[in-house]
C-alpha cells in the first residue's frame, strides 16, 4: 500500500489505517477475537497506523491491551496511536481531563497496556476547557523528551487551539471526524493544519458504518450500540441518508467498487496529507477497506458525490452534550 506523509515532522502511514474503537466500544458487544484477526490481516495488507485510546477501555485498558497483543509480532513495523483526556463515566460535569498529572498517568498506563516502551503518537482526545492547551503541549513535550512519546496529536481541536499548542510543542497530526457525511469540521481546520505542516487523520471515515450501506433503523441496534441514539439513524434522517447511499452505491458499482471503498477513496482524494482509519472487527471487511487505496476517483466522480451529498448527512454527528468544542 502506498505511504503518505502526515505533515512535515516525519510521521508517515500507509494510505488506509485502522481504528480499534469498535473492538470494545460504541458498536455493540466487544469482539476480541474478531478484532485481533482484523488487525493482523490489516498488517498483512500493508496497513501501518493503528489507533486506540484510554476511553475505549472504559478505564480498564481493555482496548489497548487487545491492540497491544494483536500487534506484538510486528510492533516495530507500525505506528501505534493512543489518546488521553476523555474520561469515563460520561459525566456532564466533567467529560474531559487533560491535567498534566492525568496525562502522565495515562501515558504510563497506555505503555503498560500496549506492552511497548514508546507511544508513537499520543493525542489529546478532546480539548479540556479547564486546562490551557499550552500546559497540555508542554506536558506532552516533556514525555517526548523522556522518550515515552514520539509524536504529539490533537483531536477535534479548532484552528486557534492548534496554533497555540503547536507554538509550544510541534503537533504532528490532527484527528477529527471526516467523511462524505461530515465535512464541516475538516473544512474548518484543513487550511490551518496545512499551513503548519500537520497531517490529518480522518476518524469515522465510514460515517460510523452508514456509508457502507450495511445499516438498519436505530431501534434495531443493541442497547450498547451508540447508533440507537445517533441522529443520522433517527426516523426522517435515516430514510434520506439511505437514499443517498443508494445513489453512491450506483456510482461505485459503475467503477467496479463498493460504496465503502468509494467513501474511503473520496477521503484519499481530499489531499495527500489525509489518512482515514476505518474500524472493523471483520477480516473480510478489512480486506475491502484496504483495497480502497487502489480506487481512483475522477473529477466527474467527485462532482457527482457532491451532487448526491452536498452538505453531509441529515442529522448531527453527536448529541449536544458530546459535541466537541475545540
Ligand atoms: N478521535 C475521536 O474522537 C474518535 C471518534 C470516533 C472514532 N475514532 C477512531 O476512528 C476509528 C474509526 O471510526 P469508527 O469506528 O467510529 O467508524 P467507521 O470506521 O466510520 O465505521 C465503523 C463501523 O463500520 C463497520 N464497517 C467497517 N468496515 C465495513 C465494511 N467494509 N462493510 C460494512 N461495514 C463496515 C464496522 O462494523 P464491524 O466492526 O462490525 O465490522 C463499524 O460498525 C475508531 O475505531 C477510532 O479509532 C476517533
TrEMBL record:
InterPro entries xref list: Aldo-Keto_reductase (IPR050791), NAD(P)_OxRdtase_dom_sf (IPR036812), NADP_OxRdtase_dom (IPR023210)
Protein name: Aldo/keto reductase
Residue stretches making up the NADP-dependent oxidoreductase domain: 15-309
Highest taxon of source: Bacteria
Lineage: Bacteria, Bacillati, Actinomycetota, Actinomycetes, Pseudonocardiales
Organism listed in the record: Amycolatopsis ultiminotia
Matching Gene3D superfamilies: NADP-dependent oxidoreductase domain
Classification via Pfam families: Aldo_ket_red
Keywords tagged on the record: Oxidoreductase
UniProt keyword annotation of Oxidoreductase present: yes
Amino acid at each position: 500500500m502506498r505511504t503518505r506523509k502526515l505533515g512535515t515532522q516525519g510521521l508517515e502511514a500507509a494510505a488506509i489505517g485502522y481504528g480499534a474503537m469498535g473492538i470494545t466500544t460504541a458498536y455493540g458487544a466487544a469482539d476480541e477475537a474478531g478484532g485481533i484477526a482484523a488487525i493482523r490481516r490489516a498488517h498483512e495488507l500493508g496497513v501501518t497506523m493503528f489507533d486506540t485510546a484510554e476511553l475505549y477501555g472504559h478505564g480498564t485498558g481493555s482496548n489497548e491491551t487487545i491492540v497491544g497483543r494483536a500487534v506484538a509480532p510486528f510492533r516495530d513495523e507500525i505506528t501505534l496511536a493512543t489518546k488521553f483526556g476523555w474520561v469515563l463515566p460520561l459525566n456532564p460535569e466533567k467529560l474531559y481531563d487533560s491535567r498534566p498529572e492525568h496525562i502522565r498517568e495515562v501515558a504510563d498506563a497506555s505503555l503498560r497496556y500496549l506492552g511497548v516502551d514508546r507511544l508513537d503518537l499520543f493525542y489529546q482526545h478532546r480539548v479540556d476547557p479547564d486546562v490551557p492547551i499550552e500546559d497540555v503541549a508542554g506536558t506532552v513535550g516533556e514525555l517526548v523528551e523522556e522518550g515515552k512519546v514520539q509524536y504529539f496529536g490533537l483531536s477535534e481541536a479548532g484552528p486557534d487551539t492548534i496554533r497555540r499548542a503547536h507554538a509550544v510543542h510541534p503537533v504532528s497530526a490532527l484527528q477529527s471526524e471526516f467523511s462524505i457525511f461530515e465535512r464541516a469540521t475538516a473544512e474548518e481546520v484543513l487550511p490551518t493544519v496545512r499551513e503548519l505542516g500537520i497531517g490529518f487523520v480522518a476518524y469515522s471515515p465510514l460515517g460510523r458504518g452508514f456509508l457502507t450501506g450495511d445499516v438498519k433503523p436505530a431501534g434495531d441496534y443493541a442497547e450498547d450500540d451508540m447508533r440507537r441514539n445517533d441522529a443520522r439513524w433517527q426516523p426522517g434522517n435515516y430514510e434520506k441518508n439511505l437514499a443517498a447511499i443508494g445513489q453512491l452505491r450506483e456510482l461505485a458499482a459503475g467503477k467496479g467498487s463498493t460504496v465503502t471503498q468509494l467513501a474511503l477513496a473520496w477521503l484519499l482524494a481530499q489531499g495527500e496529507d489525509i489518512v482515514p482509519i476505518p474500524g472493523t472487527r471483520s477480516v473480510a471487511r478489512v480486506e475491502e477497506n484496504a483495497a480502497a487505496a487502489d480506487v481512483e476517483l475522477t473529477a466527474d466522480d467527485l462532482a457527482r458525490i457532491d451532487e448526491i451529498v452536498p452538505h453531509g448527512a441529515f442529522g448531527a454527528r453527536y448529541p449536544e452534550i458530546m459535541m466537541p468544542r475545540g
